[in-house]
Write a structure and sequence with these properties.
37% helix; 371 residues; five-stranded mixed sheet; alpha/beta; four-stranded mixed sheet
C-alpha cells in the first residue's frame, strides 16, 4: 500500500466519502486499469503498509448494484487499515458512515456520490481534502486557520462543527468549498441532471460561506462558484433556472459573479488546478495579452486586438459567458473572438452560434505558462 498508488488513493477517498460511483472511476485515472483493480480488491488480498510490518489479509472493497448504478464501499473487515492510513481516519469514517451503516435511499446515495466525485477531483488536483488532516473552520472570531496550500472542505463537515447555527437546508446543494491562496470557491455538482434551484437558499448559503471565509481566511467574501458536471449544457440550464427567480439578487449569476464549469473528467481536474493558483485570473490574462491590449467596456470582454473584442473562456466561467452572449445583441459590427480549449468548442459553437470566431489553446501550454 504505497502512498500515491491507486489502491492507496481508493482507500483515502472512501475513508472520507464512504461510497463512490463505479461509473466515475475515470476520475482516478485509466478507467480500465481502475476497474480491474477494484475487481481484484473485492477478493482477499495480503496488504502491507511500508511504515509497518503488519500484514492484513482481507478484501478491501465491497461493490453492489448493477451496470452504471454500481456503488463502491469499504469492506467492513478493511476498516482496521484506516488506523494505518492516517491518525483519526478510522474515527472520522465511523462517524460519517454511522458506524459503517448505509442508507439505500436514492437521495442519500446520490448526495454521497456528488460529494465523492468532488473529493476525487480535489485529490487528483493535489488539494488537501482529508477532514482529519485539516483545521476546523470557526465562525465569530477572525483568525486565519486554513492551510497555505489549496484545500477542499466538505459541506457536511462545516455543517457538523460547532461554528454553525445555520439551517441545514443551506447545505443541500453545496458539496463543499475550496480555499486557495487569496481566494475561495463554493462547490456544486450537477452530475448529469439540472440542479433544482432555490434562490433564497443559495443567497443565504453564499452569505454563510462568506462569513466563514472572512473569519478563517481573511477574505472579504465568496463571489465565485465551481459547478461540476458531465455536460456544460446541463450546467448552463442549472444557471438559467435562476431566471425563474422573481428578484434579480436571487439569481445564481447575481449571487456568484463567477461560475466556473468543470467537467467531471481529467480536463476538469486540470482546470481545478488552474483555478486554485494564487492570482490565477491575472496570470492567465498576463499570459494571453499585452498590457495595452487589455481593455474592458460595457460589453463583457478581456482585450481589444486590431479592433476585435477578445473574450477568454479559458476559466470556464459560465456567468461571464452569459453576459458576453447578451452583449452580442448590441455589438453587431466588431469582430468577436473567444479563446477556449479544444474540448470546449462544441459547446461554445452551439451556444454562441457562427457570429463568434473560436480560437483554441492547449490547456497544458497555459498551465505550464502560468505556473
Amino acid at each position: 500500500m504505497k502512498a500515491g498508488s491507486h489502491t492507496h488513493q481508493l482507500l483515502q477517498l472512501l475513508a472520507v466519502s464512504t461510497e463512490f460511483p463505479a461509473a466515475s472511476l475515470h476520475l482516478l485515472g485509466s478507467m480500465r486499469s481502475i476497474k480491474d483493480l477494484v475487481h481484484r480488491l473485492e477478493s482477499v488480498q495480503d496488504i502491507r503498509f511500508p511504515s509497518s510490518d503488519a500484514v492484513y489479509q482481507t478484501k478491501l472493497l465491497s461493490v453492489n448494484g448493477y451496470r452504471d448504478k454500481r456503488n463502491i464501499r469499504l469492506s467492513k473487515n478493511a476498516l482496521p487499515l484506516l488506523d494505518e492510513l492516517y491518525p483519526g481516519a478510522l474515527e472520522y469514517y465511523l462517524r460519517v458512515s454511522q458506524n459503517h451503516q448505509f442508507s439505500s435511499g436514492h437521495y442519500h446515495v446520490g448526495r454521497n456520490h456528488r460529494v465523492g466525485e468532488a473529493i476525487a477531483m480535489a485529490m487528483m488536483a493535489g488539494l488537501e481534502f482529508r477532514p482529519y488532516a485539516l483545521p476546523q473552520l470557526r465562525k465569530g472570531v477572525i483568525r486565519r486557520v486554513i492551510p497555505a496550500n489549496p484545500s477542499f472542505y466538505i459541506a457536511r463537515d462545516i455543517k457538523g462543527n460547532e461554528c454553525d447555527n445555520t439551517d441545514k437546508t443551506v447545505f443541500t446543494r453545496i458539496v463543499g468549498m475550496v480555499f486557495y491562496p487569496g481566494g475561495c470557491h463554493t462547490v456544486y455538482n450537477t452530475r448529469d441532471a439540472v440542479m433544482k434551484w432555490s434562490g433564497k437558499g443559495e443567497y443565504k448559503a453564499a452569505y454563510h460561506f462568506s462569513e466563514l471565509a472572512r473569519c478563517n481566511a481573511g477574505l472579504r467574501d465568496v463571489h465565485s462558484a465551481l459547478l461540476l458536471g458531465n455536460d456544460p449544457n446541463i450546467a448552463l440550464q442549472t444557471i438559467m433556472e435562476s431566471d425563474k427567480a422573481q428578484k434579480k439578487p436571487m439569481r445564481f449569476d447575481s449571487i456568484y459573479h463567477r461560475i466556473h464549469f468543470l467537467p467531471l473528467n481529467s480536463n476538469g481536474t486540470r482546470l481545478l488546478q488552474i483555478l486554485t493558483l494564487q492570482d490565477w485570473n491575472e496570470r492567465i490574462l498576463d499570459t494571453l495579452f499585452e498590457t495595452e491590449q487589455r481593455q474592458t467596456g460595457v460589453m463583457e470582454y478581456d482585450a481589444c486586438i486590431n479592433g476585435a473584442f477578445v473574450f477568454s473562456y479559458l476559466d470556464g466561467d459560465l456567468a461571464r459567458l452569459i453576459r458576453f452572449r447578451n452583449g452580442l445583441r448590441t455589438e453587431t459590427k466588431r469582430q468577436l473572438e473567444v479563446l477556449c480549449y479544444p474540448w470546449q468548442c462544441e459547446f461554445l459553437r452551439s451556444y454562441l452560434g457562427d457570429r463568434v470566431i473560436l480560437k483554441t489553446m492547449s490547456m497544458e501550454v497555459l498551465y505550464n505558462a502560468i505556473q
